[in-house]
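Handoff note, outgoing to incoming analyst
You'll be picking up this chain. Sequence as last confirmed:
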Amino acid sequence: MKTITGGAMKVTVDEDKCIGAGQCAFTAPQVFDQRDEDGVVILLAEIPPAADEPAARDAATLCPAGVIKILDDDVENR
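Most recent structure output, in case you need it:
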């Protein structure tokens, strides 16, 4: 599991449970990418700017495997 923190938002992905559907990379390409060989999610090294936080939240909601977690102020939103 990889985590990137910044400000009040924390994005966590569980690569081991990712099914490679790609909704995250499509919805929030500034925050997520996919490995070329198998499509598994990559949490990008950049901390999502405030403008990209809504897209990151949408990606977490759309993830069919539920591997993306968005945390704010130590409160889990997904």
